[in-house]
Design a protein that fits this description.
By secondary structure, the protein is α+β, with helices and mostly antiparallel strands. The chain has 2 domains: 228 residues, Ribosomal Protein S5, domain 2 (2-Layer Sandwich), CATH 3.30.230.10; 119 residues, 2-Layer Sandwich (Alpha-Beta Plaits). Helices cover 30% and strands 27% of the residues. The chain contains 11 helices and 14 strands. Strands 2, 3, 4, 6, 7, 8, 10 and 14 form an 8-stranded mixed beta sheet that branches. The two termini are 29 Å apart. The N terminus is likely disordered. The structure holds cytidine-5'-monophosphate (C5P). Cytidine-5'-monophosphate binds next to strand 3 and helix 6.
């Protein structure tokens, strides 16, 4: 069987303005929803971003990746994906009735978002089709495929791109979750994690969500007990920072560390925001600060402004500031807003990919 992949650059769903904002009263991707309503089932998923409360780099592995010990948690900054089979009526829209399936990515114009087959959500669709054995994979380069029924992934992004919050991995996890349902693959969460591991180090965690201790490349996971909710100010930097650049910078500027995550794990168990603030740790900070010296100043600024702790999120450049509670987070965000292109308050943990109404 054959899965024919057609990955389009950018389509504007009806109901969105050219600047990417939604029309008043419009649901995201309403054009897609209308087409979906006419054509067949639609599955929608909301998927949270990831933060690292602790990240230690133990050294470089034989496969070139870096050996990590990291504590990851989902945070309430979400992307949304709607998936559906669309196209001319009467062409057998149920996936099981077909051997060939195009996959098309719709999204607003977002600077830096990988297009088409370079996007992890599309790659996740291919990987799932292959793993589930429901469809085979090939690429179509002509326009004929748009005349046929195809699967559309409509991506609504809120997670910063290349921001150190696993936005691409979250989209891959969302696509795996939603298409598993749409295509009736019936893969288990463990199966989806295994498919996700081939797509990126953070994808297995994003498939599951919650709070986890990870080792290896960051994809060997153990669930971790976390009581209560923690409140953050998520401070986005202007320019993205590619993950690979930060690890290369670590190779140049840093040495393997032996620091352990016990203090973070204890703070999560005891719902102690003050202890968590003091224990936040990220070995990638010196590597990212070498590339972007202003990030170090921004971290100091957040601490001076009253954060219980501040840490680079993953490979950055997003910075996280921890607050005592929701009110303190709101007040802190107002104090620091002028310093960053975007700040928002968020809470963790934020569950995992969640199927929601289309
Ligand atoms: O796994 P993923 O594709 O998300 O990783 C992006 C890049 O980050 C890799 O190509 C690699 O350069 C770097 N990386 C690493 N060690 C890890 C995870 C990521 O060197 N544990």
């Amino acid at each position: 069987m054959l899965l024919c992949v057609r990955a389009e650059r950018t389509y504007h769903a009806r109901g969105r303005r050219r600047d990417g904002a939604l029309e008043p009263g419009a649901m995201g991707g309403i054009g897609v929803t209308r087409e979906i309503a006419a054509d067949g089932p639609c599955v929608s998923v909301r998927v949270p971003a990831k933060i690292n409360l602790f990240l230690a780099v133990r050294g470089v592995r034989e496969d070139g990746y870096h050996e990590l010990v990291t504590v990851m948690q989902t945070v309430s900054v979400f992307d949304k994906l709607r998936v559906a089979v669309v196209g001319p009526p009467g062409q057998g829209h149920h996936p099981a009735s077909r051997r060939r399936m195009g996959v098309e990515l719709w999204h607003d114009l977002v600077a830096g978002l990988p297009a088409g087959a370079d996007n992890l959500a599309v790659r996740a669709a291919l990987a799932l089709g292959e793993a589930a054995g429901v469809l085979d994979v090939t690429a179509i380069r002509d326009d004929n495929s748009r005349a046929n029924a195809r699967t559309v992934i409509d991506l609504d992004k809120d997670i910063p791109i290349a921001g150190g919050m696993a936005g691409g991995s979250a989209d891959a996890a969302g696509a795996l979750t939603a298409l598993n349902r749409l295509w009736g693959c019936e893969l288990t969460k463990d199966d989806l994690r295994a498919v996700g591991a081939r797509l990126g180090s953070d994808v297995p965690f994003c498939v599951v969500g919650g709070t986890a201790l990870a080792t290896g490349r960051g994809n060997a996971l153990a669930q971790v007990l976390c009581r209560g909710t923690f409140h953050w100010v998520v401070c986005q930097a202007g320019e993205p920072l590619p993950t690979a650049d930060v690890y290369r910078s670590w190779d140049t500027h840093c040495k393997p560390s032996e620091v352990e995550p016990d203090a973070v794990l204890q703070a999560l168990r005891s719902e102690d925001a003050v202890a968590l603030g003091a224990a936040l740790h990220n070995d990638l900070e010196p590597a990212a600060f070498a590339l972007r010296p202003e990030l170090e100043d921004h971290k100091k600024f957040l601490l001076d402004a009253g954060a219980l702790g501040a840490v680079l999120s993953g490979s950055g450049p997003t910075l996280l500031a921890l607050a005592e509670d929701a009110k303190a987070a709101q007040e802190l965000s107002e104090r620091v807003a002028a310093e960053f292109p975007q700040v928002r308050v968020a809470r963790s943990p934020a569950g995992g990919p969640e199927l929601v109404a289309c």
